[in-house]
Design brief:
- The complex is a heterodimer of chains A (about 120) and B (about 120).
- Chain A is mainly beta and about 120 residues long.
- Chain A is built from no helices and twelve strands.
- In chain A, strand 8 and strand 9 form a beta hairpin.
- In chain B, strands 2, 4, 5, 6, 9, 10 and 11 form a seven-stranded mixed β-sheet that branches. A four-stranded antiparallel β-sheet of chain B has the order 1-3-8-7, with no helix packed on it.
- The chains are: A mainly beta (about 120), B mainly beta (about 120).
């Protein structure tokens, strides 16, 4: 079974500062993918970034980067130069390649990020 | 805009009723996934279809069913509704089925309220 743990229910960050949202995972799959999604108050789920377990480099997408530490089973999201529009719920998710876990995403409980002006 | 459309956006109905949620995937995507987001359960996978065939099942109740049509749109049918079925229902789509890197793009969701 796959499990995602997000230990920070809520975080505050000053505008223009960087912030790290924590995510640890557990899986027995040899290959897997890690994803981050953003859910603003309007409700939609927005895909942010993807990291494959065998990718040599950490993924980056604009102001988002994924700090992937395979040995520690962590996949933290780093948002640089925070903006007011970054205020939202952030979900870490994973997918494996074997069995039932190879199709659906398993989500963590989320972290609510609030950006302070 | 992810390119995934869901209708209706909001739905209010009474206990015991039946509703149908509709999803159109992004152009070119063959896989459709249904997820339920509730306060107590979080985001849970319900079911996946790939090119018209059921591919995987998650925590989907027997009162719920889904299908994917030849034009690749999908419908989620919820029957004998209970108060606990009130949730945000998401549809997501991806190009393939099981390959890693096939990101799932989510629709705006249908908020179901059962009274």
């Amino acid at each position: 079974a796959q499990k995602i743990t997000q230990t920070q229910p809520g975080m505050f960050v000053q505008e223009k500062e960087a912030v790290t949202l924590d995510c640890t995972y557990d899986t027995s799959d040899p290959s897997y993918g890690l994803f981050w999604y953003k859910q603003p108050s309007s409700g939609e789920m927005i895909f942010l970034i993807y990291q494959g377990s065998y990718d040599q480099q950490n993924a980056t997408e604009g102001r988002y980067s994924l700090n992937f530490q395979k040995a520690r089973k962590s996949a933290n999201l780093v948002i640089s130069a925070s903006q007011l529009g970054d205020s939202a719920m952030y979900f870490c998710a994973m997918r494996g390649v074997r069995g039932a876990g190879s199709y659906q995403l398993t989500f963590g409980k989320g972290t609510k990020l609030s950006v302070i002006p | 805009d992810s390119g995934v459309t869901q209708t209706p956006k909001h739905l209010i109905t009474a206990t015991g009723q039946r509703v149908t949620l509709r999803c159109s995937p992004r152009s070119g995507d063959l896989s459709v996934y249904w997820y339920q987001q509730s306060l107590d359960q979080g985001l849970q996978f319900l079911i996946q279809y790939y090119n018209g065939e059921e591919r995987a099942k998650g925590n989907i109740l027997e009162r719920f069913s889904a299908q994917q049509f030849p034009d690749l749109h999908s419908e989620l049918n919820l029957s004998s509704l209970e108060l606990g079925d009130s949730a945000l229902y998401f549809c997501a789509s991806s190009v393939g089925a099981g390959r890693l890197g096939n990101e799932q793009y989510f629709g705006p969701g249908t908020r179901l309220t059962v009274t």
